[in-house]
Write a structure and sequence with these properties.
By secondary structure, the chain is an alpha/beta fold. It folds into two domains: 152 residues, Rossmann fold (3-Layer(aba) Sandwich); 91 residues, SIR2/SIRT2 'Small Domain' (2-Layer Sandwich), CATH 3.30.1600.10. Helix content is 34%, strand content 17%. It is built from eleven helices and nine strands. The strands form two sheets. It has a six-stranded parallel β-sheet, with helices on both faces. The chain has a three-stranded antiparallel β-sheet with strand order 5-4-6, with no helix packed on it. It starts with 8 loop residues before the first helix and ends in an 8-residue tail after the last helix.
């Protein structure tokens, strides 16, 4: 039987120093540390506001009754409007600047990696940064959190955004249930080519992202508070700890600063 290996911060820092191509897969845990509740967690919007995810993020439901999604979005932007990236977000941005980190694959839709300064970010589930018309396909690249905040919070009823060109319903470029995730082939290549993979804040319970770490024999360091659905292996290390606490300790052994 394989033993689950752990890794102290000094040894983690050593592996980062020795890496030539490092990749990151991030999940909800890195954002909950910033103050964004996990949608499905005990403080998540699905629970606290009693939203039905099949009505909120199911693509067929959105096409029929988009107001469910817009109602959820108003609560979501209320939750995140003052949220800032965490130490770990800034830590990863610094690793990209210094060289070893070649890209981040994220399951999150909050754009906190970009706000921290990361540039090569693959958003598997998209984000609110842009929207597309569900009728004519026109893209609205400047649709940002601040746009959503203004539109959602100034309306007494859940608004539905419409395309200025044809009047069709705008759909933020978020991957709904029933749609293909973004950039999965690119994510597979990034992980296949890396020599160090960090899996951060993900229980690896949601497919297809959960399959990505199985596509490499590179050293894999998993940091997550709670159980992770990835079996032990000689090249895998598991740290059940708060991300910021762990990576602050790691940063002390690296010639860099973050956050």
């Amino acid at each position: 039987m394989l033993i689950t290996q752990t890794l102290d911060p000094a040894r983690c820092a050593e592996k980062i120093r020795n890496a030539e191509k490092m990749a990151v897969l991030s999940g909800a845990g890195i954002s909950t540390a910033a103050g964004i509740p996990d949608f499905r967690g005990p403080r998540g919007l699905y629970v606290t506001r009693r939203y039905d995810p099949d009505k909120v993020f199911e693509i067929s439901a959105f096409r029929g009754e988009p107001h469910y999604f817009y109602e959820f979005t108003r609560d979501f932007v209320t939750e995140v409007r003052d949220v800032k990236p965490t130490f770990t977000h800034y830590f990863l941005a610094e690793l990209e600047k210094s060289g070893p980190l070649t890209g981040i694959i994220t399951q999150n839709i909050d754009t906190l990696h970009q706000l921290a300064g990361s540039r090569n970010v693959l958003e598997l589930h998209g984000s609110y940064r842009s929207a597309s018309c569900s009728k004519c396909g026109k893209n609205f690249d400047e649709l940002t959190y601040r746009w959503w905040e203004k539109a959602m919070l100034e309306s007494s009823a859940p608004p539905v955004a419409f395309c200025s060109a044809c009047g069709g319903v705008l759909k933020p470029d978020i991957v709904f249930f029933g749609e293909m995730v973004n950039g999965f082939n690119a994510a597979e290549r990034l992980i296949a080519e890396c020599d160090l993979l960090l899996v951060l804040g993900s229980s690896l319970a949601v497919s297809p992202a959960s399959s990505l770490p199985t596509g490499t024999q590179a050293t894999t360091i998993v940091v997550n508070s709670g159980e992770v659905m990835l079996p032990p292996a000689p090249h895998r290390y598991f740290i059940d700890q708060n991300l910021d606490v762990y990576f602050r300790a790691v940063a002390e052994h690296l010639p860099m600063s973050a956050g």
